[in-house]
User: Fold this.
Amino acid sequence: MTLTLDTADALVRVARKKAEATGVAVCVAVLDQGGHLTAFARMDRAWLGALDVSIRKAKSSVLFEAETQMIWEVCKPGAQAHGLEQTNGGLVTFAGGIPLKGPDGLVVGAIGVSGGEVAQDYVVAQAGAAAFAAWQKGERT
Assistant:
Protein backbone atom coordinates (compact mmCIF):
# COMPACT_ATOMS: atom_id res chain seq x y z
CA MET A 1 0.00 0.00 0.00
CA THR A 2 1.23 3.47 -0.81
CA LEU A 3 0.03 6.92 0.09
CA THR A 4 -1.22 8.61 -3.07
CA LEU A 5 -1.15 12.32 -3.78
CA ASP A 6 -4.96 12.39 -3.94
CA THR A 7 -5.20 10.81 -0.49
CA ALA A 8 -2.53 13.10 0.95
CA ASP A 9 -4.34 16.15 -0.45
CA ALA A 10 -7.61 14.90 1.03
CA LEU A 11 -5.96 14.51 4.45
CA VAL A 12 -4.71 18.08 4.27
CA ARG A 13 -8.27 19.23 3.50
CA VAL A 14 -9.71 17.26 6.45
CA ALA A 15 -7.06 18.68 8.78
CA ARG A 16 -7.64 22.23 7.55
CA LYS A 17 -11.38 21.86 8.11
CA LYS A 18 -10.74 20.68 11.68
CA ALA A 19 -8.31 23.55 12.28
CA GLU A 20 -10.90 26.04 11.05
CA ALA A 21 -13.51 24.52 13.37
CA THR A 22 -10.99 24.71 16.22
CA GLY A 23 -10.25 28.34 15.42
CA VAL A 24 -6.55 27.91 14.76
CA ALA A 25 -4.34 28.57 11.73
CA VAL A 26 -1.88 25.74 11.17
CA CYS A 27 0.54 24.17 8.75
CA VAL A 28 -0.28 20.60 7.72
CA ALA A 29 2.30 18.26 6.21
CA VAL A 30 1.73 14.75 4.87
CA LEU A 31 4.82 12.66 4.19
CA ASP A 32 5.16 9.29 2.48
CA GLN A 33 6.75 6.22 4.07
CA GLY A 34 10.22 7.44 3.11
CA GLY A 35 9.69 10.72 4.92
CA HIS A 36 9.29 12.77 1.74
CA LEU A 37 6.78 15.60 1.52
CA THR A 38 3.68 14.57 -0.44
CA ALA A 39 1.18 17.31 0.42
CA PHE A 40 1.35 20.53 2.40
CA ALA A 41 -0.71 23.58 3.29
CA ARG A 42 0.01 26.69 5.31
CA MET A 43 -3.25 28.29 6.34
CA ASP A 44 -3.58 32.07 6.19
CA ARG A 45 -2.03 33.63 9.30
CA ALA A 46 -0.21 30.43 10.33
CA TRP A 47 3.20 31.19 11.79
CA LEU A 48 6.09 30.87 9.38
CA GLY A 49 7.99 28.84 11.97
CA ALA A 50 5.18 26.28 12.05
CA LEU A 51 6.02 25.24 8.49
CA ASP A 52 9.26 23.48 9.46
CA VAL A 53 7.80 22.14 12.71
CA SER A 54 4.86 20.47 10.94
CA ILE A 55 7.19 18.73 8.50
CA ARG A 56 9.55 17.66 11.31
CA LYS A 57 6.64 16.31 13.34
CA ALA A 58 5.54 14.16 10.41
CA LYS A 59 9.11 13.08 9.71
CA SER A 60 9.75 12.18 13.37
CA SER A 61 6.55 10.15 13.35
CA VAL A 62 7.32 8.26 10.15
CA LEU A 63 10.96 7.58 11.12
CA PHE A 64 10.03 6.04 14.47
CA GLU A 65 6.55 4.76 13.53
CA ALA A 66 5.03 6.47 16.55
CA GLU A 67 3.08 9.52 17.58
CA THR A 68 5.57 12.27 18.31
CA GLN A 69 4.70 12.65 21.98
CA MET A 70 5.49 8.94 22.47
CA ILE A 71 9.02 9.53 21.14
CA TRP A 72 9.54 12.02 23.97
CA GLU A 73 8.99 9.22 26.48
CA VAL A 74 12.17 7.46 25.34
CA CYS A 75 14.35 10.55 24.79
CA LYS A 76 13.51 12.81 27.74
CA PRO A 77 16.18 13.35 30.40
CA GLY A 78 16.76 10.14 32.33
CA ALA A 79 15.06 7.94 29.70
CA GLN A 80 16.79 5.13 27.84
CA ALA A 81 17.49 7.17 24.68
CA HIS A 82 18.10 10.64 26.09
CA GLY A 83 19.27 12.89 23.27
CA LEU A 84 17.51 10.95 20.52
CA GLU A 85 15.65 14.15 19.58
CA GLN A 86 18.94 15.56 18.33
CA THR A 87 19.32 12.87 15.65
CA ASN A 88 18.06 12.80 12.07
CA GLY A 89 18.42 16.54 11.64
CA GLY A 90 16.35 17.22 14.75
CA LEU A 91 13.20 15.44 15.81
CA VAL A 92 10.08 17.06 17.22
CA THR A 93 8.89 15.18 20.28
CA PHE A 94 5.68 16.90 21.30
CA ALA A 95 2.19 16.10 20.02
CA GLY A 96 1.09 16.78 16.47
CA GLY A 97 2.77 14.05 14.43
CA ILE A 98 0.90 10.79 13.79
CA PRO A 99 1.90 7.83 11.59
CA LEU A 100 -0.51 6.68 8.91
CA LYS A 101 -0.86 2.92 8.71
CA GLY A 102 -2.15 0.75 5.90
CA PRO A 103 -4.58 -2.14 6.38
CA ASP A 104 -1.66 -4.45 7.17
CA GLY A 105 -0.55 -2.17 10.02
CA LEU A 106 2.58 -0.98 8.22
CA VAL A 107 3.38 2.73 8.20
CA VAL A 108 2.75 4.29 4.78
CA GLY A 109 3.35 7.89 5.83
CA ALA A 110 2.59 10.44 8.50
CA ILE A 111 0.73 13.67 9.14
CA GLY A 112 2.24 16.58 11.04
CA VAL A 113 0.47 19.70 12.27
CA SER A 114 1.88 22.85 13.84
CA GLY A 115 0.66 26.36 14.51
CA GLY A 116 -1.67 26.13 17.47
CA GLU A 117 -1.21 25.07 21.03
CA VAL A 118 0.20 21.56 21.24
CA ALA A 119 -3.21 20.09 22.17
CA GLN A 120 -4.82 21.87 19.21
CA ASP A 121 -2.17 20.56 16.83
CA TYR A 122 -2.83 17.05 18.10
CA VAL A 123 -6.60 17.33 17.61
CA VAL A 124 -6.10 18.53 14.05
CA ALA A 125 -3.59 15.77 13.27
CA GLN A 126 -5.95 13.20 14.80
CA ALA A 127 -8.71 14.32 12.44
CA GLY A 128 -6.48 13.65 9.44
CA ALA A 129 -5.25 10.32 10.81
CA ALA A 130 -8.80 9.22 11.69
CA ALA A 131 -10.00 10.04 8.18
CA PHE A 132 -7.14 7.98 6.74
CA ALA A 133 -7.99 5.03 9.01
CA ALA A 134 -11.66 5.23 8.04
CA TRP A 135 -10.79 5.31 4.34
CA GLN A 136 -8.68 2.19 4.80
CA LYS A 137 -11.88 0.46 5.95
CA GLY A 138 -13.76 1.76 2.92
CA GLU A 139 -15.61 4.44 4.85
CA ARG A 140 -15.80 8.01 3.58
CA THR A 141 -16.34 10.92 5.92
Remarks:
- The CA atoms of residues 25 and 46 lie 5 Å apart.
- The longest helix spans residues 118-136.
- Strands lie at 27-32, 37-42, 97-101, 107-114.
